[in-house]
Amino acid sequence: MRRALMLAAVFTLIGSVSASINVVDTYANVVSQAPAIDVAAAQLAAAVVTTISTYLKLPTSTIQIYAFSLLGVVLVGGLPIHGASFSLSILGWIAGPLVALALGFLLAKLGLGIARKGSKVLAWFLIAVAIYSSFILGSNDVSNAASSLVTAGMLSPRLAGLWGGFFMALGVLTWGQRLLGRIGHDILPLDVPLAGTAQLSKAISLSVINAFGYNASINQTIVGGLVGVGSAVARDKLDRKVLRNIVLNWTLSPLLGLSSAALASLTLHIAVGG
């Protein structure tokens, strides 16, 4: 566990610094004229909702929580929002899991074929997929933490990516293991090749979306990949009760982000008298 999380942390940081600029710019421009106090309210609300969900081992979309937290402060403060960017971001959220599901279904036989080549080939395949997947975690998710620093004019997109990526890596090392059991075992009792194939499907999907300056939920996309490989080779083993609970949480988490941010914004404005 420790070695796996260390590997993920290192390549998450690399992805945050080297490949996140387009996505950071997109989110920095969604609400480009927000006062610092409203940006802080959105960040605080998103962090609290995500922390609670992680503690309860409920995979949520940090991206959706943060985006709807921004929407919450926009509604409270009457701030301008770039509607086109926000709408395209939502399309990215939808596309990620669906593309991963299709790729997982199509590539399931690939994972099983690699397994038949022997344990050494399978091991290198899994290491490569883990590195690629961790790199994409950095490029895809750091915008939640870094875009507000760009909006406030405090850091450039690359330095903001470095700052956010460092703390993402720290989060991987300290709390990452809480969700591994839920994603890796509860949804679908996977053998090793299928787990690697689902991760590869997720990473490819997010790479394409990130290249256009948008992102999608890591958790939703990996679940899409898991469902895809499960549908191809182990449909009867899918735990639909766990899937229903996660889908319910995905529905609630944006709403919690929006309402929490609205409350945080009102509270902070009252506290500072403005």
Helicity level, as a percent range? over 70%
Which of globular, elongated, flat, extended, rod-shaped describes the shape?
A: globular
What's the alpha carbon Rg, rounded to whole Å?
19 Å
Q: What is the count of DSSP helices, taking H or I runs of 4+ residues?
A: 12
- Succession of helices and strands: HHHHHHHHHHHH
Query: What is the residue-mean pLDDT, rounded to a whole number?
Result: 86
Question: Structural class of the helix and strand makeup?
Answer: mainly alpha
> For the report, how would you describe the main beta sheet?
none
Counted up, domains total 1
- Tell me the span between the first and last alpha carbons: 48 Å
* Quaternary class: single chain
**Strand content of the residues, in percent?**
under 5%
What is the number of strand segments? 0
| Low-confidence residue ranges | none
Overview features:
12 helices, globular, mainly alpha
Structure, described:
The protein is mainly α and 274 residues long. The protein has one domain. 82% of the residues lie in helices and 0% in strands. It is built from twelve helices and no strands. The longest helix has 33 residues.
